[in-house]
From TrEMBL:
InterPro entries: Class_I_gatase-like, Divisome_Glycosyl_Hydrolase, GH, GHL6
Gene3D superfamilies with a match to the protein in the record: 3.40.50.880, Glycosidases (3.20.20.80)
Name of the protein: Beta-galactosidase trimerisation domain-containing protein
Highest taxon listed in the record's lineage: Bacteria
Length: 707
């Protein structure tokens, strides 16, 4: 066992160091790196990127320092060197914070032979070999390897090196149930069930296993964090997390163990939109508004199935990904696999993005993000499949997100489990892309929100339980609708007809009807609600001679209602977000934007950004000041990575509604530098922007007229 150094010998460090760790470099060593490591190159990268924090491979699967722990496999090229220690020392000389990375997901053959109890096992009880590397075996996160051995590794690192944290990657297991004898015995003792099998999805043990696994992993987080803090009180053990944050762990155990989050979404793949990194910042803030989050970005290309870790992503993609992330609050973190560089084209675009963050950070870190519109984050969790509980956004959410970005309506997120009247205090419109299973407390909060003058835009079955569950909490009364037919579909060739003129159905000049949905609800509207669109009765899509409308009941498709409190509600009785994301019909994007703008009230949005192109907008405000960040996402590859060029924005204007009775309004351009002309017209401050390459932040200040 490693004897920790006395705490008195450790330099004093601030327990809130993580709030100043705002630009991260991560270097993941490979086995042969100690022989070729160029320390000066990496220190220069840290200088060029203005990095103030470093995450560096230390141990676990492979040690990159002279460990004294048996079976802690040293790099074959380590010799008498200490690459981890050399870069820790160099980073500290640069005034940086340092986090040691450990990876406990596998062990080498000697450890496997000596400690078979550490290994994950298949349903027949056989150790599971690594899928990619021969002679290596997966570990079981419920075994003594994680509980005791990795704890000892963390203690050794924290005792011997001046680090601020330990970061665990791939710590949750191999992605399936481990049937190791010790795990099976513990599960039976704790739950009374035998471990479930994948070929029996209806096994009631699955529900027990999901909760048991969550608690075991949560207890690991606590154990590891306690261990390192006992040696150096300011040090934290922060295991890697994805979009679920702590949602799939036991919140009462781990919430205070995560002072900040590192979201491992390293780039775009498939048909992910250019605004994806910004959403990560918003989603994290929707659950933990006061905790920093860093977005881990790979310098290489990303793919769900292919891995090219020694290659480089397009520089335009890298810059855009990092910048959109930090504008929406996700701090920049780049990761490079292997210290030896076969292609250095990533360095300059990362440095440029980081330097933009450095320029904007004094303002962005001082002013909180604010928005009048909030999207309810209702991620699906599975009680029977813990590996599916990763918080992947739904297509309903994707469609609303895309429409709001296109409409340039600034918005935030509020997590469903964090929904309170206090969280909605500064929100004017709450958007529910699809919230099918609201609880009684959530329904009550939303009703109180509208009673206090707030507005709601709800799509599809949000807050409308099926007719077979009449006792479930419902928003039907608030929305001014009655559910008479449950979800029906998929429906082809569906249309919705414009009803009486209303702000929600404006902008469709020349059209009697627009495309409807594929999944429909049958609703009726109460007397004091306005029917804005009606469903055209279904008719065939083939043969072509039969494609014409027939008479029938024209049920409401979109219902708008004004409340005595001044609040407004809109209900859309079909899968609007999903169908917009799937088909990208501009009419659907307009419908979402119209609904939200009408819900904001006659005064409209407080902040408007006009001009051509696709931009992501973030607003931050304080007493006597407001900042509007405009990120240029205009690109032919905006809906599918990678971007290959940056196309400057032209003709942009920023308009901000000012508080009553203010004077001396000034405007500064944070990226371009210097003050700029501001025109005050009808209580709004208007700033015209020169062409924006990637980012501009307009910082407005004013004084009260009575000052």
């Amino acid at each position: 066992m490693t004897e920790p150094k006395p705490t008195s010998a450790v330099p004093d460090r601030d327990p809130e160091w993580y709030r100043r760790a705002t630009r991260w470099t991560q270097l993941t060593f490979t086995d042969d790196d100690p022989a070729v490591l160029d320390v000066d190159f990496w220190l220069d990268v840290m200088r060029r990127t203005r990095s103030n924090a470093l995450c560096l491979s230390a141990g676990g699967y492979m040690a990159f320092y002279p460990t004294r722990i048996p079976f802690h496999h040293r790099s074959a090229h380590l010799g008498d060197t200490d690459p981890f220690g050399a870069l820790v020392e160099g980073a500290r000389r640069l005034g940086m914070h340092v986090m040691a990375r450990v990876d406990p997901h596998a062990v080498h053959a000697d450890a496997a032979e000596a400690h078979p109890e550490w290994l994950a096992a298949d349903a027949e009880g056989r150790p599971i070999p690594h899928a990619s590397q021969p002679g290596v075996w997966y570990t079981d996160p419920c075994s003594s390897y994680h509980r005791d051995y990795l704890t000892e590794v963390a203690r050794e690192i924290v005792s011997d090196y001046d680090v601020d944290a330990v970061f665990a990657n791939r710590w949750e297991g191999h992605g399936g149930v481990s049937y190791a004898e010790g795990t099976a015995r513990a599960f039976l003792a704790d739950t009374g069930h035998r471990l479930p099998h994948v070929d029996r999805p209806d096994d009631p043990a699955w529900t027990a296993y999901a909760g048991w696994r969550s608690r075991r992993l949560s207890e690991l987080v606590v154990r590891w964090d306690d261990a390192v803090r006992a040696i150096r009180p300011h040090v934290r053990f922060i295991p890697n997390r994805g979009a679920m944050l702590t949602r799939d762990l036991v919140r009462e155990l781990v919430d205070d163990r995560y002072p900040m989050f590192f979201v491992d979404k390293q780039g775009r793949s498939g048909t992910e939109a250019a605004w994806t990194p910004g959403r990560i910042g918003k989603r994290t803030r929707g659950l933990f508004p006061d905790r920093p989050v860093a977005l881990i970005t790979s310098v290489g290309p990303e793919s769900p199935v292919l891995r090219w870790k020694d290659s480089v992503a397009d520089g335009h993609e890298l810059r855009s990904w990092i910048v959109d992330g930090f504008v929406q609050g996700a701090l920049p973190w780049f990761t490079k696999f292997k210290a030896e560089c076969f292609d250095t084209r990533w360095v300059e675009p990362v440095a440029e993005a980081y330097q933009l963050h450095e320029r904007c950070e004094p303002l962005l870190s001082r002013l909180p993000v604010t928005a009048e519109v909030a999207v309810l984050d209702t991620q699906t969790r599975s009680s029977t499949n813990p590996w599916a509980s990763h918080g992947a956004p739904s297509s309903h959410e994707d469609g609303f997100y895309q429409a709001l970005v296109e409409a340039r309506i600034p918005f935030e997120y509020v997590a469903d489990e964090a929904l309170t009247t206090e969280r909605l205090r500064d929100v004017r419109v709450l958007v529910l892309p699809r919230a099918a299973r609201l609880g009684a407390a959530q329904v009550e909060v939303i009703e109180q929100f509208v009673a206090g003058g707030g507005s709601v835009v709800a799509a599809f079955d949000s807050g409308l339980p099926p007719t077979t569950e009449p006792d479930r909490p419902s928003l039907a009364g608030l929305l001014g609708v009655r559910l008479v037919e449950d979800v029906r579909g998929p429906v082809k060739n569906n249309y919705i007809a414009l009803a009486d003129p209303h702000p929600v159905n404006q902008g469709y000049d020349g059209a009697q009807r627009i495309v409807g949905g594929t999944q429909l609800l049958g609703i009726e509207a109460v007397d004091d609600a306005d029917v804005v669109f009606r469903f055209v009765p279904d008719y065939p899509d083939l043969p072509m001679e039969e494609v014409y409308p027939r008479p029938g009941v024209e049920r409401p498709a979109v219902v708008a209602r004004e409340h005595a409190s001044g609040g407004r509600t809109v209900h859309i009785a079909f899968d609007l977000g999903h169908i917009f994301w799937d088909a990208l019909q501009s009419d659907h994007g307009r419908l979402i934007a119209n609904a939200v703008r009408w819900a904001l009230g006659d005064a409209g949005p407080s902040v408007e950004v006009g001009g051509p192109g696709l931009v992501d907008v973030a607003v931050r405000s304080g007493e006597g000041e407001l900042a509007v960040a405009v990120v240029n996402l205009t690109n032919p590859m905006a809906m599918r990575g990678q971007s290959h060029e940056t196309i400057p924005l032209a003709g942009q204007s920023v308009s901000v509604r000012l508080p009553a009775d203010v004077r001396d309004v000034t405007a500064e351009l944070v990226v371009a530098g210097g003050t700029t002309e501001v025109e005050v017209v009808d209580g709004r401050a208007v700033v015209q922007l020169d062409p924006v390459e990637l980012l501009e932040v307009v910082h407005l200040r004013w004084e009260a007229a009575s000052a």
